[in-house]
Amino acid sequence: MIRKYFLLLLLFSALFLHKNEAAGQSGKRTITGSVTNEGTPLEGVLVLIKGSSYFSGTQHDGVYYIPVADSATVLVFSLEGYQSKEVMLSDKDEYNIELKKKSPSLSEDNRITAATPKKTLYPHH
Q: The domain that contains 39 carries what CATH number?
């Protein structure tokens, strides 16, 4: 008899926990899509929920998946050498993004500098 009550209690506890777990999942959804440049998939694009520390990245085919709370409003897409893009979220679950390459500029990595020779190859007589 005690065993029967114990099994019933265990069954109801499992159902109660499952119901609470499912309720905890409400308010979340998964956003998906692809990131390209001129039709070419981009791998390694950082996909960040703005204002949080949650992020994901694109796979080799440019596809990403990121779980977001319903309260999330903006996704940020960034990759070195490309212009970052912010996208306002709506009720859609799929966002296909086109990133544009940054235009070349005189940055730290590719600046033009003038140099003066320190040693001549042909010394004067």
A: 2.60.40.10
